[in-house]
Amino acid sequence: MKIAFAVTAVSLVFLTIACQTSEENITPATNTTTNSTNNTTTTSTTTTVKPSSQEIYDTFVRLALKNSAGTAAMTIRKWLPTKTQIKVYWDGGRTTTLLSALDKVMADMNTLNKYNKMVRTEVVAEADIIINRVEAATHNSKYTSFQVSNSSVQGTTFTQWSSDAITKAVVWLSPTTPSNLQNGVLRHELTHALGIGHTENTKSIMIPVMSSNNYDFNTFSILDQRIIQILSDNRVKQGNTEANISAVIKEYAAK
Ligand SMILES: [Zn+2]
Fold first, then answer.
1. What would the pLDDT profile of 175-204 be if each residue is shown by its tens digit?
2. N or C: which end of the chain has fewer CB within 10 A?
């Protein structure tokens, strides 16, 4: 899926994230995030904008209950609420700066998600989420079940799930992503690893094509905070349809 929108800010350069997402219930499912181009100074314009109740409802449905094209209904995918820790291992291409950015994303998610607390691990064998930031060919040779098909993209998240929960996620980050975009790509991909897809709403970091100056990459927008809170509510279960959980979505949307 490729969607582009015009950027009317002073900057002529923008981050493009285009994605192909496989929503079929296969293992592993793939969710590919792409960006090209460079970037300029980041300023936040939509991160703190309060979304309407209808926006929250519609965006959650789009992110969690629609296929990548937004044309077909699908069901919720998420980590089991009884899984108290999701262990994250950074494999290749880690830096002190990136690990700090990862810690910030995890801390933000842990504030919003009461059940699945993300923690870093140095033991790959126990990792639930693996991050690898190396060239695609190097990644593919090591993670043969989670191969990057488009090496020109900036990030790819693969999720693998059983009948009742997500069981593993592997995130590939391009080592050539400009440093001032890395936090945004990292936050976007880690959010995929929770079990959600894309939206066209520019108040969300989960837009497939993102202006570099419409989102503060170091925090979640109010809209994204609501989305993560809804998904992590333990009344929302893997396999649920919109009809199953519409009352819960409305409850958060009304806050
Ligand atoms: Zn994406």
1. 998 887 889 999 999 999 999 998 888 899
2. C
| 149 in any annotated domain | yes
Q: From ligand 1's centre to the CA of 45, what distance in Å?
A: 21
Q: Is residue 1 part of a domain?
A: no
Ligand 1 center–CA 18 separation, angstroms: 7
State the CATH number of the domain containing residue 237.
3.40.390.10
Residues 20, 216, 245, 236, CA torsion sign = positive
Instruction: For residue 255, report the distance from its CA to the centre of ligand 1, in Å.
Output: 27
Q: Residue 169's beta-bridge partner residues?
A: 129, 159
9, pLDDT greater than 70: no
What's the CA gap between 14 and 184, in Å, rounded? 12
Residue 202 CA, ligand 1 centroid: distance in Å? 13
- How remote is the CA of residue 206 from the centroid of ligand 1, in Å? 6
What are the structure tokens assigned to 200, written together? 């066209």
Q: What is the pLDDT of residues 127-175, one digit of tens each?
A: 999 999 999 999 999 999 899 988 888 888 999 988 889 999 999 999 9
| Within-domain flag for 96 | yes
